[in-house]
Amino acid sequence: MKSAKLYETHVYTRNLEAAIAFYEGLDLELAYVINERRVAFFWLGDADKKEQMLGIWEVPEEKFRTSHFAFYVSLDELLQVPAFLLKRGAQVLPSFGLDASEPVVHTWMPAASYYFQDPDGNSLEYLALIDGDPNPELGAVHLSTWQKHGATS
Q1: Coil, strand or helix at 117
Q2: CA nearest 114: which of 145, 89, 142, 148?
Q3: Do 52 and 44 meet the contact criterion of CB atoms below 8 Å apart?
Q4: pLDDT tens digits for range 82-141
Q5: In angstroms, rounded to a whole number, what is the distance separating the alpha carbons of residues 143 and 45?
């Protein structure tokens, strides 16, 4: 169904309590914990709307694997991400061969993003759609480069 939206995604952790602390530190609202199953659920966005959920599952080392997902934010919010993460003991990471001094643009979309990791090494991303027509020939570029050369409407 083309109208379907992603409601829920899940990632693994090696330590549920540490993961809960990390994701609460990102200002996600803890919805429910099932200790006997070693899983925690968080509401994403407006918890009152109950539109999106993240599940964190503790698994033994032999079943652990890292995953990736992105949080959608506005461009103004994206520009605040480095300071937001630093206050929470995390940091933005280089991506696609570019340093983390500013957001990286996925020129085929276009969208700007910052990448970071949770304590288990899951790849997380804050992503904002940006103005302009897709221009995949540019490859991955910093936001300032996109704004100077890549943004066409």
Answers
A1: strand
A2: 142
A3: yes
A4: 999 999 999 999 999 999 999 999 999 999 999 999 999 999 999 999 999 999 999 999
A5: 25
Name the maximum alpha-carbon separation found in the chain.
54
- 1-65 matches 66-153 in fold: yes
What's the N-to-C CA distance of the chain in angstroms?
Answer: 30
Which CATH number does 66-153 carry?
Answer: 3.10.180.10
* Nearest Cα to Cα of residue 113 among 72, 83, 149, 150: 72
A 10 A CB-CB count for 13 gives 23
Using an 8 Å Cβ cutoff, are 29 and 43 in contact? yes
Pick the CATH number of 1-65 from 3.20.20.70, 3.10.180.10, 3.30.70.1290, 3.90.1110.10: 3.10.180.10
Beta bridge partners of 11: 56
* Token duo for residue 9: 């995604």
Report pLDDT digits (tens) over 8-19.
Answer: 999 999 999 999
Cβ atoms of residues 11 and 64 within 8 Å: no
Task: Report domain extents, the chain.
Answer: 1-65, 66-153
